[in-house]
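Morning. Coffee machine broken again, so started the prediction first thing and wrote up yesterday's gels while waiting. Chain of 374 residues, entered below exactly as on the submission form.
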Amino acid sequence: MRLLIVLLIGFILYIIQNIVFRKNWSKGLQVNIDFEEPIVREGDKNALVEVIKNDKFLLLPVLQLKFSITRTFHFPKEKNATVTDQYYRSDYFTCRPFQIITRKYAFRATKRGEYKITSIDLICKDIFMNKSNFATSNEYSSVLVLPAKIRKEDLPDDIIRFTGDVVKKIKINEDPFEFRSIREYQPYDPMNHINWKATAKSDVLHVNTFNSTNRKNVVILLNLDMNLVRNSENLAEWSIRIASCLADSFLEEQIPVALYTNGSDYETDEMISVEAGCDDGHLRNIDIALARIKIKDVCPSFIKLMDEHIECDTDNEYVIVSNYRKEDFVDKFDELRKRGAKFTVIVPDYSYVNISPFSSNGPDSFKWNIDEEM
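Came back before lunch.
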C-alpha cells in the first residue's frame, strides 16, 4: 500500500511539474545573440555573444539554442556546429534560477556584406528530462562587413602616380594662409611644403597641407557589369575594394568625393549613390554603401549612368572603375572625350589579361592587376 501511495504521489508531482513547467519555462527567459562589433572590415575578427537570462525561480535543466548564420564567417571547428550551405550552431545550457549566462565565440569575417541572425530556436527539457518544450525568438541582430582595405604598399605604381597627379591638379589653388594639417610626405608634394620641425621629431618627412580656394570634386563611377562571366564575382568584389581605396586616397587629402554605381542595395533594390563630401565620416558612409551592394543580376545600364553623372562643362575629376570594356562602353568613352569630359578608366583584371588603352590621346586608362582569386 505504501508503495502505491508513493507512486501515486510521484505521478501527481510529475503531472504538476509538467503543467507548471510547460506554462512557465519561457517566462522571464531572455535570449539574445549579438555581434561584439556591429561594423567590421573584410578579414577582421569579430565575435558572437550569447546572453541567456533566466529571471524566475524555475530551474531550466537543459536549454538548447539553435541558429544559423552565413558560412563566410570562419569559426574554429567545434562539435556543436556544422557548416553546409550555412553555419549551423546548437548550444546547450543549464540555467539556474535568476542566472545570467554569457558566452562568446570568435570568428573571422571573410566576405563583404550585411549578415543577420533572424531567429533563434529554443528547446527546453523539463525537470524529469522527459518532455521537450519549443519556442522561437524573433529578435534578430546584424553585422555589416565593409570592403577589405587595400594597403598603400600594395598599390600599383601607375595608380599612385595617377592619384598624385589628380591631387596636384585639384590642389593647385591652395591658399597658403589657410593651414589645415600635417601629414607624411607623398611623392607629389612640393618641397616648399615640408615641415622640417615635424620631420626632425619623427625622422620621417612631413608636409603642411592647406585648404583650397577652388574646391573641385572627384566623382567615382563604379561599374559592376563585367567583361566576361568567368570569375565575375571575384572581379566585382575587387572593383568595390578599389573604389573604396580611391575614395580613401582622395579624402585623405580633403578632396570631396562622390560615388555612383549601377549596383543596387541588396535590401531596397535602389541604386547606390553617395553625394560629394569630405567630412570625417564620409569614407565610412561610402564603405557602408559599398558593403550593401548586391553584385548579382546587375541590371541598370552603366552607359546611362555615365550620361547622368559625367558633366563636360565642369572641372570635376571623373574616375571610372570598370572591368567591362565592350564596344558600347568604348563608343561612349570616345563620345564623352570629344565633348571635353575629363575622366580616367581604371580596369581591374588578372595579371595575365592584356588591356589596350581606350584611345591614343595620353594616359586615359590604367590596369589594376589582380593576382589572386578569392
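Residues 2-24 form the longest helix (23 residues). Going to sketch it on the whiteboard this afternoon.
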